[in-house]
Design brief:
about 250 residues, 14 helices, 434 Repressor (Amino-terminal Domain), mainly alpha
């Protein structure tokens, strides 16, 4: 079994891919260069440092915590959903992925205007935060958007291969090879550039020109999923109903 890479190794790969120096990142984040060098050398980053780094790296703070293998603090967790729906239900079953741009823009405004009603958690999220193989990290990042891994979402939102949900699970659980088509699909669902994602996962660079898009998605689809991760069950149902109204579909 290969050694688990430290967060510093992941961060170093990201900086190398971007052609950014540690010194410039230290200046951008107002972090002492010695502190950043220590992390790059293998020291575990503290929560305060991760919160400083995330905006400078243009990554969601919660995602950076997960790349670092840390449990999410309460203010960064997605909403605790208990009903049958999740954000993936909105994206696929209510066809947000192929909405006309004007309807999509209206739906996103509707989501953003909803108040934050995340239910307090009784246990840390996620509970398996120490796993660091690429598939486990991808599963954690997808879950961080309150999306349940599902063929429909990975294929229609991520433009992934037509495989069963169980096959996707086997791939991300390390029981089948994690090939480029699965990583590319995950990157689209997550809204993380493929070059950044592969660097943080420790994977070889992948050609972004291979991102075939057979049909047009609304700009901002991954951002809508992120906005919706904080919604309660009741609010998510309201958004799904609103999506149906905007496209003239019957609600279910």
């Amino acid at each position: 079994m290969s050694e688990t890479p430290s967060f510093g190794v992941r961060l170093g790969r990201l900086l190398d891919r971007r052609g950014t120096s540690a010194a410039s990142l230290a200046v951008a984040t107002d972090v002492p260069a010695a502190n950043l060098d220590a992390v790059l050398a293998g020291e575990d980053p503290g929560p305060a440092l991760l919160r400083r780094l995330a905006p400078a790296l243009d990554l969601h703070t919660a995602d950076l915590f997960l790349f670092a293998g840390r449990t999410l603090p309460d203010d960064l967790t997605p909403s605790l959903l208990t009903g049958p729906w999740n954000v993936g239900s909105l994206l696929y079953w209510h066809r947000v992925y192929d909405m006309p741009s004007s309807a999509f823009a209206e739906l996103r405004r509707f989501v953003i205007a909803l108040p934050d009603r995340r239910a307090p958690r009784t246990s840390p999220w996620p509970t398996d935060n120490r796993g660091s193989d690429p598939g486990t990290v991808l599963l954690r990042l997808i879950g961080n958007r309150n999306i349940r891994l599902d063929l429909a979402v990975m294929m229609h939102v991520g433009d992934g291969p037509y495989m069963s949900t169980s096959t996707y699970r086997m791939v991300l659980h390390g029981k089948l090879p994690l090939t480029a088509e699965y990583v590319n699909a995950s990157a689209r669902v997550l809204g993380i550039p493929i070059s950044d994602l592969t660097a943080m996962l420790g994977l070889a660079p992948m050609d972004e020109s291979e991102w075939s898009m057979p049909y047009e998605r609304p700009a901002g689809l991954a951002e809508l999923a992120w906005d919706a991760r904080r919604l309660s069950d009741e609010q998510l149902r309201q958004v799904m109903d609103r999506a149906d109204e905007l496209t003239g579909r019957a609600t279910g």
